[in-house]
Amino acid sequence: MSRSLTAAELPAAPATRGDRTVFALRGVGKTYARRNIEALGRVDLTLDAGTFSSVIGASGCGKSTLLKIMAGLVPPTSGSVMLAGRPVTGPRRDIGMMFQQATLFPWKTTLENIVLPIEIRDGRAAARVHHGNAHALLELVGLKGFEGVYPKELSGGMAQRAAICRMLITEPEVLLLDEPFSALDELTRDFMNMELQRICLQRGATAFLVTHSIPEAVILSDTVYVMSPRPGRIVETVAVDLPRPRTLDMVTTPRFGALVDRIRSHLDKGSFL
Amino acid sequence: MSEVALSAALETENTVWTEQDSWFDRIPRSVAMAALAVVAIGLWQAVSWSGLISPIILPSPGDTLRHLIFVGGNLLSGGYMLQSLWVTLQELVLSFALAVGIGFALGVLVGETAFGERAVMPYLVAVDTMPKVAFAPLFIAWLGFGIESKVALATFIATFPIVVGTAAGLHASDENARMLFKTMGASRWQTLVKMKLPTGMPQFFTGLKIASVGVMAGVITGEFLGGGRGFGELIRVASTNLDTARVFALILYLSLLGLLSFGLVAWAQRRVVFWQSASVAREVG
């Protein structure tokens, strides 16, 4: 087995914060022709390198559709989606994705689950070469020593940590997070959010989170996009100017409360018309 | 120290509600099974002593035991019964292998392709609803009185549960897993081999278990109706001679063979789907 890299030796972040556009969406819309439902109006969105953005909205406001379009899983009806200067026309190697469920496969060990994207992309031999990186990632998320453990022995939070490793193993340009911790209990979720921040800061990752928790969006993000439904569109862009690294104590500060109130007022206006 | 422990124990007894098992719940499973067998055989013995039922219809346990020993001796000494058993065993293994091959291929066709699901599946359902044993005379007419007609009937019976198990297994993967494989850029083949098939292994093995029972029914039915030199033929001959105790003994040996084949499939399932049993244990425990 190859020597494990330590977390500090991981490949450096591809860019410093905010100086380069990673994702650019221009006038992206989606209409489901069969039922003639306009799921998404014209959405414009720019994600800079190393920034954390969230989109928040009520259920059915089209935020999941937006995420699927960005991931190349669903084609938009109109507009353009550019990732790292190239249009997104299908699933891409430079996109890492995470879902509400960890979706680890029970017949593979934690380590084998983490290198699965490499195995799919470049075969088993390449996957073995990446075992060293996987060890380093496990250390990064605090799962060192769980390499050979099968998923059924992991708790919900541990399983999501392993899913983070699997998302990071291909060193994606951007992380698309679809309510990744919403199935966890609240204490674990708060803790995992702080872990996510630490990991993103350490790796200089560009991340885009879909959530329906306002505090979660505020504590994690540099920018929060508020979406309203029918058709889904961005009604407000809120810049979060809380200093980094964020801590859970900040939740009680007046500034945090003001940001939450501002987002809530826009959500209320948009979603209950 | 001991006083503290005692008072704690008393306290526990007074405050914690414990589920009261009846004495019946506390009997070990093996003891309960043995007790039931003893009661059943006792009843059987009582009925045959009473002389109410002719031994041609219900032989006594003693007669049956004598025949069990005789048949066992014949099998162990390599007599004609062992040759019959060998014929039946060949039929079982061949038809099971064929059923697995055909059933798996059809199951993938039906579970993975739109053509299979829309065009092939309705016909499979239609054929599956037919009484398959009724096809036995046809197989005998087409393939003769040898081993082939028995293998054909048993394969015919055992294929359908494997088709259904395989197809159900391919539909068992959840939306997230499919989306994950899409985002990883997996091909259809990779998605099938690396995700859908392993996910569906429990359902596939359920099909195999049903099939392992089905081949036995098919082979023995084939031998009843189509002669030959198998174990079913021994049973048929014994029953025409009104030798009911022999029939009982032969059926018991046959059921041992059935248990063995079912057990082999269950053992293979535990080895292949090693993640299944433990997760069930966690849900229960």
Description:
The complex is a heterodimer of chains A (273) and B (285). By secondary structure, chain A is α/β, with parallel strands linked by helices. Chain A has a domain at 96-171. In chain A, 34% of the residues lie in helices and 24% in strands. Chain A has helices at residues 63-70, 110-114, 116-122, 124-129, 131-140, 156-168, 186-203, 214-220, 254-271; strands spanning 21-32, 37-48, 52-56, 78-83, 86-87, 95-98, 174-178, 206-211, 223-228, 233-239. Chain A has a six-stranded mixed sheet, sandwiched between helices. In chain A, helix 8 (214-220) packs across helix 9. Chain A is globular. Chain B has 285 residues and is mainly α. Chain B has a single domain (73-284), classed as MetI-like (MetI-like fold), CATH 1.10.3720.10. Chain B is 80% helix and 0% strand. Chain B has 13 helices and no strands. Chain B has helices at 2-15, 29-50, 61-76, 80-112, 114-128, 136-143, 147-170, 175-183, 188-199, 201-226, 231-240, 244-272, 274-284. In chain B, helix 11 runs antiparallel to helix 12. The model of chain B is unreliable at 278-285 (pLDDT under 50). The chains are: A alpha/beta (273), B mainly alpha (285). Chains A and B meet through helix 3 of A and helix 8, helix 9 and helix 13 of B.
Summarize the SSE layout with pairings.
The complex is a heterodimer of chains A (273) and B (285).
Chain A: E1 21-32, E2 37-48, E3 52-56, H1 63-70, E4 78-83, E5 86-87, E6 95-98, H2 110-114, H3 116-122, H4 124-129, H5 131-140, H6 156-168, E7 174-178, H7 186-203, E8 206-211, H8 214-220, E9 223-228, E10 233-239, H9 254-271
Parallel strand pairs in A: 3-8, 3-9, 6-7, 7-8
Antiparallel strand pairs in A: 1-2, 1-4, 4-5, 9-10
Chain B: H1 2-15, H2 29-50, H3 61-76, H4 80-112, H5 114-128, H6 136-143, H7 147-170, H8 175-183, H9 188-199, H10 201-226, H11 231-240, H12 244-272, H13 274-284
Helix pairs in contact in B: 3-4, 3-12, 4-5, 4-7, 4-10, 4-11, 6-7, 7-10, 10-11, 10-12, 11-12, 12-13
